[in-house]
Design goal:
The chain is of the alpha/beta class and about 280 residues long. The protein has a single domain, classed as NAD(P)-binding Rossmann-like Domain (Rossmann fold, 3-Layer(aba) Sandwich), CATH 3.40.50. About 45% of the residues lie in helices and about 15% in strands. The chain has 10 helices and 7 strands. It has a 7-stranded parallel sheet with strand order 3-2-1-4-5-6-7, sandwiched between helices. Helix 1 packs across helix 9 and helix 6 runs parallel beside helix 7. It is globular and about 65 Å long. It starts with 9 loop residues before the first strand and ends with a helix.
Length: about 280
């Protein structure tokens, strides 16, 4: 059911790759709610993914290739988006993250530092560069909303998440610091959503992801939030209903973040103890 929450709003969505991407689901929901937007991803992702299929589903949205670590590329995304959409931008989604150390299964304690710097640049500094580029071009309307996707590994240790945990911690810090500046300058809101472990292309590459997923499902009173539910939550942050929400890391995880232990998990552990 659509509520026209984003009717008349213009946006940019970074990071959609295929149907498993949270950015893909968010784009579909934004379209359903009346928004117009451009789609952007790295040139290699445009070749590997299905973003053109998504564009067709979203009223033939314009796709703009860009390296999110390049300020020059990002400035071009904002300039072109304002041109094709007919005005300044009302919302931006940052759904960008990649770790060479995770992909190559290099343990955290044996990290390759060149890879580590790439992780930070792609997964966190790109968020700063997105907003710096927008501010430089005065590309965002007053009360615009910028949202980045995060994960609770920024606060708690999940060993298989590797250096992505450090990147997410920095991402959340950037949201607070840039949100402070952008709020005073232009009334722009900046927030991160700390999502449940979600079955995405990127998430499935994390060592032990299946265990993370099932553990969180058993611990969360409401169960894990899926990509479609994350999209619904994003819509509220892009809408005018959350004008005074900024500089926050918002947990969207079925209660996992504030649950110590669940009855089901305790009972399973006790059963295994008795069987032993």
């Amino acid at each position: 059911m659509a509520y026209n929450l984003l009717k008349g709003k213009r946006g940019i969505i970074f990071g959609a790759l295929d149907e498993k991407s949270m950015a893909w689901q968010i784009a579909l929901k934004c379209h359903e709610e009346g928004a117009v937007f451009t789609l952007s991803n790295a040139p290699i992702a445009l070749r590997m993914g299905k973003i053109n299929e998504l564009a067709d589903l979203c009223n033939h949205a314009v796709v703009i290739g860009a390296d999110a670590t390049s300020s020059t590329d990002l400035e071009q995304v904002f300039a072109q988006s304002m041109e094709v959409l007919g005005g300044k931008i009302d919302f931006v989604l940052h759904s960008i993250g990649m770790s060479p150390n995770v992909r190559k299964k290099i343990p955290y304690t044996e990290t390759n530092y060149e890879n580590f710097l790439k992780t930070i640049d792609i997964s966190a500094l790109s968020f700063h560069k997105v907003m710096q580029s927008a501010m430089k071009l005065d590309a965002l309307n007053e009360w615009a909303s910028v949202v980045a996707l995060s994960y609770i590994a920024a606060q708690r240790t999940f060993p298989g998440y590797n250096d992505m945990a450090d990147a997410k911690a920095l991402l959340e810090s950037i949201a607070r610091s840039f949100g402070f500046q952008y709020g005073f300058k232009k009334k722009v809101r900046v927030n991160t959503i700390s999502q449940s472990p979600t079955l995405t292309t990127a998430g499935s590459g994390v060592e032990g992801f299946d265990a993370f997923f099932h553990y969180a499902e058993k611990l969360s009173p409401l169960g894990n939030a899926n990509a479609e539910e994350c999209a619904d939550y994003c819509l509220t942050l892009f809408s005018d209903l959350t004008r005074k929400v900024t500089m926050q890391n918002l947990f969207h995880d079925g209660g996992f973040s504030f649950t110590g232990v669940s009855t089901e998990l305790v009972e399973q552990l006790l059963t295994k103890q008795h069987e032993a």
